[in-house]
Amino acid sequence: MANHNDLGKKAEDLAVEFLQKSGYKILIRNYRFQKAEIDIIAEKDNVIIIIEVKARSTDAFMLPQEAVNKRKISLIVSAANHYLEEFNKTQEVRFDIISVLPNEKGRLIIEHITDAFEAFDAN
After folding, report:
1. Which CATH number fits domain 3-122: 3.40.1350.10, 3.30.1330.40, 1.10.357.10, 3.40.50.1360?
2. The pTM is what?
3. In Å, how far from its chain's centre is CA 105?
4. d(CA 5, CA 24)
5. pLDDT computed for residue 55 by the predictor
């Protein structure tokens, strides 16, 4: 497996651990619909949270969350809608991003960006 894949998997595992410690219930990981994948779907306070995890080995070129562009948002929203229909979920939905970057000592730092984007941003 390539190093970036290793970092991505580690970042998702750290994000799940972070979310669980923060009181989130993890409903599903790596939910796929057509060409889209949602990294984590969680629930907290009766809200469904769709979470995109982005990791980079450096922020020299862009912050991890900056990689979530309109096309990616459109795919995430499409997959989220399918998930909600498939599992008959009627709760409010929120879209978050978890950014993972190493600090100067190489330790991975998590930034949780709540309400990172709205479903209508995709258009």
Report:
1. 3.40.1350.10
2. 0.87
3. 25
4. 25
5. 85
